[in-house]
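Workshop exercise sheet. Pairs work together: one partner reads the sequence aloud, the other fills in the structure field after running the prediction. Swap roles for the next sheet.
Pair: D.N. / O.F.
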Amino acid sequence: MRLVYAGTGGFAMPAFEALIASQFKPIALITQPDKPGASMRSSSRMVGLGLKGPALKGGIAVHQPQSINDPAGLAILQALAPDLLVVAAYGQILSQEALAIPKLGCINLHASILPRHRGASPIAHAVWAGDPETGVSVIRMTPGLDAGEVIGLVRTPIGAEETAEELEVRLSQMAASLAWEMVEAISRGKVTGIPQDPALVTRAPRLKKDTGNIDWSLTTAEILRLIRAMQPWPTAFTHRIREGLPSVRLQIVKGQNANEQISAIPLLQAAEAPGTVVSPDSRGSELLVKTGDGALKVLVVQPSGKTAMPVGDYLRGNPIRIGDRFAKV
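Structure field:
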């Protein structure tokens, strides 16, 4: 079977490597054009160049059209004459003309339990929403966004402290096994699909730089989910408000629910605004910030231009007082 793989970034890597090592070694890789300064990241939300490495090592042709749907991109696909196109985190929506070229169609590895979280950022949205589980779906591709019949599915619980970055690593490994199974089944004509229920569709739009801007009026649990969901990009962040001085941007890398400490903190009994600092302790190693329903203990931060550090290290060089504020700017 003439198989072509289209993918970009970390999520797509293990499935690509699994297919290279199988009897279904792809004849070509289609990936996004190189971008100056781009590097491989573990998240498919970031543009990565990593798939070119195993492709070139394995003698697999690499194509990087600006768009797979323009005349040049379609010409590449037509010349390859694939029986099957396998897509994983490629980063472009395929047109009907592109989808019609492979003889056996196109399948997509999508990191959610479809029809939940259709879109570019399903992993982050699953963590952000507090879903108890997620998975990898394989669909027959159609012109609709992630709307095709589901032909394969694996599920996994989401860990209580698991970040989107950590979850993506696990899902990418699950996708590797599932990709081979689905390609093998298609080669034998042993695949049936299940239509998605339109009533269950939710959206997972592409993340933006500002998506991680913390709204402290949300509940502590909601903010903690946002912190986990925004890793490794765009990261959750807030602004430290300084009287008479410009605000300072600060990434919040890790936090902890401190709602049970409310009774011991007088400021939390009063009508303090969310985002108010309610307790750095006397040693300057603890930072509690008021939320919509209690308090969040900040554990790890990353100042602009620096590496992540325990909040105690940050506070030693950047004293914060009770009553200071963090805000969404």
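Discussion prompt: The chain has two domains: 3-200, 209-327. What would you look at next?
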